[in-house]
Protein 1
Amino acid sequence: MVDFPSNFFDLDAIYGLATSQSYTYWIGLGINIILSTIIGGIILIVILEIFSKKFKEPIKPGNAFLAVLVVNLINMIGIMGFLLPYIAPVPYLVMILPLLIWILLIKAFFGELSFIHAIAVGIIFYLITIFVLPYLAGFVMGFLPSFG
């Protein structure tokens, strides 16, 4: 059994991580999180509206932005990086865990969807976040001023 790292909740270690980067890194990361959340939320709303109309399941569009924000915070702040040494020995778990997170968050934020539809939306949006969302966020960030 793997012991959880003792310095994971150590405030000095977190402060050391936070101060290891310049302020431009944190501004860029914040802008990237905001843009990815807005763009991803819009794309997720479109996908959910298609499922909602097809299967007659009502959804709350505002929850799409919250679901995308939670996943962005998990991915971009580095929570998966903290867990990587512990999940890497299990084959394919590094690829499956983000997919499971998407499926569970879709079901949690959109409880009115059936579980099979939550799985379908989770898989579709997982693929979109891998291939389309970074491209769109980078494209939009090209129009913003540089902070460096």
Note: Residues 47 and 121 are 7 Å apart (CA to CA).
Protein 2
Amino acid sequence: MVKIQILGTGCPKCRQLTEAAKTAAKEAGIEFQIEKVTDIQKIMAFGVMSTPALVVNGVVKVSGRVPSIEEIKGMIINNA
């Protein structure tokens, strides 16, 4: 199972990234769990300075932007 974390305070881009990550994981046919991390201290512990950020299995894959579904699919598949 792939653990996907969305780091952000709940802004529109954070919600957009959450939906894109769900869609990408479903399209890839991968079993996944999504967790939203909204606590600023926890976000900073990942070393992320700009949100939203996508974390796959504990590794920050992208921050400060919402990648395409195809990009996210690649990030998830390569870490499954």
Note: The first strand starts at residue 2 and ends at 7.
Protein 3
Amino acid sequence: MNEQQQRMICETILMETKGLCDLYMHGTIESATPNVRAAFDQGLKDCLNMQQTVYDKMAQMGWYPPSQAPQDQINQLKQKFTNMQ
């Protein structure tokens, strides 16, 4: 398997894992009983760990380089959340 194929597989796994995290999160939020909530919550934690592992591997390979948000956007968000308090 060449590097391009590996990258495509990792991108697919990352995308699908993010979608699964979203489903687990909504399941946790909408759970009607503590047992069901705990099951979804554990699934969410496991899925978030998997997502982090895939992201770390992709970043290590240079396929998903982290980027710094522009300072003006950071300042706008700070201001927004400060005003909400």
Note: The mean pLDDT is 92.
Protein 4
Amino acid sequence: MRSEELANLDATAQAAIVASGEATAAELAEAAIARIERLNPALNCVIFPRYERAIAEIRALRPGAAPFAGVPFLMKDLLQTIAGEPFSWGWKPFKDAALTARTTSHVAAKFRSAGLIALGQTTVPEWGVSLSTETAAWGATRNPWNLAHAAGGSSGGAASAVAARLVPIAHANDAGGSIRIPAAFCGLVGLKASRGRASLGPAYAEFWHGLCEEGVMARSVRDAATALDVVAGYMPGDPWTAPPPARPFAESVVRPPENLRIGMMERAPKFHPGIDAEAATALRNATRLLATLGHRVEENFPAALDDQRVNQAFGRVVAAGEARQAETAAAMLGRPLTAEDFEPWTWFLIERGRRVAAVDYLAACEWFNEFSRATANWFADSGYDLLMTPTTPSAAPPLGHFKVGPNERPGAAGARLNQMSAFTTPWNIAGLPAISLPLHMTAAGLPIGVQFVAPYGREDLLLRLAAQLESAAPWSSRRPPTCA
């Protein structure tokens, strides 16, 4: 098969041709490496290449022995690590210090056991706290649909790489929209699982009071489902774990759902300036499509989504987490950290976190529980199977949109981040599974995602509906201009 033909295959199809002998894992890796070397200078999404190690791993591979055996892959440069290999968190001091990981994380080990061949890592915003991947360490990562626009964050490098078909699938994680927002910006499938679905160990018990979940960037629903099977499951010492599914998630995608009753939030929360016309069009079109499939969509959603305390509570927990992370980073570097080490937004969060009193932090955690109960009770009491919202209030903004401008207070950049993540952050707080699907393209040629949210532990229902929508309105033929 030609290189371009291979690039257009999803991870499931690539694994199948390796298993059948139609192509070898080495051929897939060579094609992906050639594509990275050709397109990455413009996209700037792949760092820390490990091509020689990848080829050595291929020699020990048994085709067909694992779900993704022989499929090229990229790890995200945040949280999950491979022992002896570099990491930077998107931060120049770590990059300059050439630090390497002491341990292999559980999720990284599961990816390797699934047969995925890691060719390198993907870029992230500094310490993962922005929705655009632009750093002093690595420069700006660009959206394949328009190189002047953001690819998202914190999994922006992963989204750019998968959308541009450098690899068919890549590691990602989500603590406030970091899978779903890049997926929406880059036209991908982005699933955030239920709280506790995958382990953050052994380095972390949890991250930011349970906000973070592990996953992937994918172009197909079946890849997202199989990847969830790969990473899911309790590991010793995990503080919580989601209930195991009745059957593998990969089996869910072949079973269309029964007719569903779906609530919809077609406006922004009351404290938000509002969604734009393209996001509204995406919802209307999705509503019509769902109706043709036999589903009923009604305007109804949890009243808690209008509670403005979401930004305050989320901000306190994240800021306190960054302050603690600064203590860890200082110990790793063996010196105190100063404002000169950081971009203004990251330093603002660290300083804010240092001022958060313990009682205020605990109050934010208690509000998380209040919000989680309120949203869970909406599903339990209302009779709705799912909730539909925009993933983001608009398509990807130009690069620089989330940066602190000259003579601008950092809080102004924070407000822009809160506005863009208004529909994603609530589900990290609630711990509910949510998926972004690439169901709309703007007149300017940028993707917009539509988000579906399910009750706790019901990723299977999300995946069944997502696969049905993918079949009814397929997006696999869409190719960003950079792919040409």
Note: The domain at 3-303+388-483 is CATH 3.90.1300.10 (Amidase signature (AS) enzymes).
